[in-house]
Structures are given as C-alpha cells and as structure tokens.
Design brief:
Largest sheet: 7 strands, mixed
Radius of gyration: 20 Å
Order of helices and strands: EHEEHEHEHEHHEEHEEHEHHHEHHHEH
Mean pLDDT: 91
Number of helices: 15
Number of strands: 13
Helix content: 40-55%
Strand content: 15-25%
Shape: globular
Length: 315
Amino acid sequence: MRIVSLLPSATEILFALGLDCEVVGVSHECDFPPAAKTKRVVIHSRIPHGTPPDEIDRMVRDYVARGESLYSVDVDALRELAPDLIVTQDLCHVCAASPDDLATALTKFAEPPEVLSLNPQDLGDVWRDILWVGEQTCRGRAAESVLEQIGAKLGELEKSVAGISDRPRVAFLEWLQPFYVGGHWVPEMIELAGGKDVFGSARKASFRVALQDVVEAAPDVLLISPCGYDAKHARDEYRAMSFPDQWKAIPAVRSGRVYALEANSYFARPGPRLITGIETMAKAFHPSMRVCAEAEGGILPIFSDMPTTARAALA
C-alpha cells in the first residue's frame, strides 16, 4: 500500500503502526517522527513562514471569508506518488488540508485513491481514529497494541490523580494574538490531569476570548500553547507581549504558574502523544507527581530564567 498523509497526527499514527515504508508523501508540517521529514512533501501552506501571529489571524479570516483554501496541493507530486490511500481531516480547515483541498487534484487521477478523512471531537474519537487507521491499512492488531499502551498509562495516571482534592483552575491558551482557548479534547486532558478548565468543554471547538475574560476567570494555572508552536516559541511570544496591571493580578501570574507547552508534540495534534500531554499537564498542576521524563521535559516555565526586573514587568 502506498499512503499519503496530509495530517501530522495521522502521520504519527501511521508510523506508530509500523507503516514507515508505506508512507510515501506528507504535508509540510509532518515532522514526527524524524523519519517523516524524509518523505516527499505534497502540500504547502499559503501563509508565509515567519508571519506574525496577529497577521496570521487576519490572513486566515480573509481566506475563510473569501471561501479560499489555506493550502496548495502539488498535483504533479501527488500523481507521481500514485497513492492507494490519502489520509486527511475535516475537523479544522485552518490547521490542515481537508477533502475540499484535494477535490481538484483527485480529478487528475484515472482511478482516484481512497480518501480517509478523520474528524475527532474528543479523546474517545482520537483513540477510535487510531483503530480506524489500523483497519484501513491492515494493521488492526498494531492499533490495538498502541491503545493498550495508552490505556495502561491512563490507568496509572487516574490512580495518581484520584486522591487529589485540590484541583487548580486552568486556562489553556492555544493562540495569543488574539486569545483563543483550547477546545475539543483539551478540556478532557485538563480534567484527566487533575485540573478544572475555566473556559472550554469537551467536544466544543476552540473559541476567542478577550483579555478581560481571562482576568475575570482568575485561573490558578495558565498554559501557553499556541497551535503550531514549540514551547520555546510560545514562551518567547508571551514574553514579547505587553499586559496591563490587571493581568498581573491573575493568580497564575502572581504565583509564577504560567507555563509554555509543546503544542505540536502533545496538545494540538490528535494522535498517540496526547497521553504524554496529559502527563505534562499533571506535572504542571501537581509538581510532586511522578511522570515520565518526556512529559516532564514538555513544560517550560515562563518566568524560570528571567531576571527579577524583567519578571516584574510581566508579573
């Protein structure tokens, strides 16, 4: 089977199922595992690399308003690869290519490939999609094994969290300019990690909030995890922003419990590594909790290495 994945999380699933050699094409954002970066790229974003976040927001809204796609498909590359299966998504037309983006390209095929479109709304859907990809690629047993490992980790985490009565109030920001809060599976992750999401609810899409909304929500923990960013990029963007005095009164900011997270690795992509994201949150909420080294390394405190004067400007 020759497979093209237009979705980073699907690429992670395919590799986890042992389909390294079968994957022949990917999107420009498919960067994990590292071997995925050796595959031919067949789709690109129309938003230039390095565009400021507020400009990205404006461009996205403009594209959507005009009914235009944010992605361009390399039709020639796709035809040369001649895939049997293309995996894409229909959840967020901003985050990755959708079936609509493929429509024109597939008309060039005498025998169009099968298209598998994933649309997870919550964690249950994410785990279901792993099984679904396994069924479609004849890797059903491998998919079951991946889920067994995830289930075992979830079971251990639930035992650790079960005895905790002090659950911090949490705000998860998945974009900073302007503010958007995490949706779909993120509120579930916060709950499983022993926190309380002050904004989102399971299966509800991300939505925009005002700075005053965050102030009034008074979260005990503030998680900074812009979609498409790694933790360092998220930290640097937060530090570059200017905040009014009322922001500094937020409990999380006063106590220094503001953390930048690895969005691409553990939160934005609905794949196997969400379980590591839950562990990462648990460590941020309950510092004494023991988690794997990968999860612990996914937390970057915003204020940890700042001089006192610079920290005071933000907190």
